[in-house]
Predict the 3D structure of the following.
Amino acid sequence: MAVVMPVAELDPKEGDEHPDASVLPFFSLFQMLKKVPSFDKYPGTWVLRRYRPGDVVCEQGETGSTAFYILSTEDLHAFRNAQLESNPDDAELRAEVDALAKRIEMLAGLDGEIARDERHSAFAHLDTGNLRPEPRPEGIWDRIGAALFGSRRAAERPIPEFIPNDGPTDINAITGIAPMYEGEIFGESSCLGRVPRSATVIASRDCYMLEMVRSIMDKIVSDRNYQDKAEQKYKDRVFEIHLRREPLFSKLSSDQYKMVQSVAELIFIEPGDVLFDEFEKADSVYVIRRGTVAVIKGILLDRESIAPDRWKLLFQRVHRASAEPDDPRSLLWAWLSDSTRQAIEEGKASDVAVKSDMVGALNRLMTNVTYFGWSFLSEAGRADLLKGEESRTLTKEANTALHQFLQERGTYFHRLIDETITGEFPRADNGVIKVASMSPLQHRLLGRHLVASLFPEAVPQPTVPVTLAYRSRGECIGELGVIDDAPRTASCVAYDHPADFDRKIAEYKKYLASRVELVRIRRDDFQRILSHSPAVRAEVEKIAEGRRSNTETTAMRGWQAEMPSASPRYHELGFFQGQQLMLIDLDRCVRCGDCVSACKNTHDDGRTRLFLDGPRFENRYLSPATCRSCRDPVCMIGCPVGSITRGGNGEIIIENWCIGCKLCAEQCPYDSIQMHEILPSERRQQQEATSVSREVKEVSHRAVVCDLCSTLPTGPACVSMCPHDAARRLDGVTRF
């Protein structure tokens, strides 16, 4: 007897149809799949719904766990025809089949664009409030504050031409609308990533949509045929829109766009996978189509990581290990070039190329922690490891081999790993790390510690990696290395939720990160595009300079410092995350409230970003609820419209097209983001999306966060205006 899953129950809607699973393959969505999902095993995970003009399919800001497929006229005809074969006497059904057949014939006689307009079925509508909110009137205290510590007016940032949403095309920022057509899927990001709906979708004509839960969507998006068709559709229709959103590509001509479309390829990486490593040669530029990529600095080694007087010792250790084939350090010798080995043997290893070759070998060792269990692997296991094969023998031996290697390191090493690596590694019931379940990022984080344990006199202990930014849909990554013809300045990793991401939002613990889809443009193709347009190259240099500045500024704050020896309370409160951690010395503080008043008077909306409520440390210091500029800013993850970013000083910026979904506020572990009601003076009238009678949900609240007073020469006003020097901003690693 076939085993089926428990019956799913989607919220009912009048007119719902629950067709037999045998007829679903009539839909073109499933016809193109290499393997049609077994619907019989997942009862209740789909429902066919009819929408009439003006019906709201889903609302902006609501929690989404399903995706929608808009049936084409051909889909509906095939489906109804199959029903008619089972019910030949149903006159109403026959009339519908005949009407659909006539519509198919009509569509076949229309030109491309006209036929496409006829298939227009719905639209996504985004309400953002006023993208240029009206500042509150200034009073005398505002003018006094401005005289004391500078103007509070923040520099205006450009409004994007398009705003990303969970649909096939981005939303026009001026009209607030994106059209949707027959045969398209929307709601994928909400379904797979469980983030709030990024827009309200309203039916524009009578249509049918198939609503599906994640178990069905997972099977669809993992199908190779679906991926190929999605890639082609993206190139044909969406790719140009995404590129034109980016200032990097805004000046491409039509011919250059055609060139890009011909060479672009769609790739997929799983959560925790490394797209590229810091210091490696830049071979491509990427545009994110779906998902989130973390930009992280400080995972691997470079030449500067090793002190000048330590190189000779490192070379000696590696050379000595070459005579011991069971030593994992012997792998390094085998990976070095002939010229590097000769230079080491002759004692002439001061050349930059020799050092770079050695660092490359060390970093290669870090990418797979199974290498460190080399001494405990069988000959067959070693052979499979060197060939890069995930054999049954290697999988079986890897866990035990690594465990035995770690046991040799002692309890101090285990404690060091537990205290300095964020998140947990996958472990079996007996506590042994499950190597096969580790992500590439986890391999590198653990491998960096293991390399230091192999060469304690030469390789320093790992530093705290810094998350410079999170990049999401429509954003470009990797252009710096290609433009500068230089190694990568940071690692880019497909985002995966940290294992300890449960400090305050237990309900988000179940949210699984979905894989990342990217468009890749190879280095030579990208350079060819730039060579054809001096204007584009100038724009590229301008953008690259801004990103270089952001990278350097953010990276300066503590990523080179080792973790401090601190109390468990230090780790419990997450102080190591703070690059601009605020602490108030309660022995100095007189509770005057000047810090809160200064914050309030520094912002256009007259609302404070500082709340004197939070945990105590060592009974003397208050850690108030305000942004600490985290090294790993999880608040930036999953914003459905990409309105939360990071500025050049490491500050978190929430743009005015925030839709008030609360996701960033919920994800901040330190209560640093508040949801404020939009003032009446800020609200704009709801723009009429169409002539439908239904009211589209308005944005009533917007997320607010401390921006570290980045536009003021004096820095954070909460600190500069404290009359008793009780308020401090400091780095949680370097100055704690």
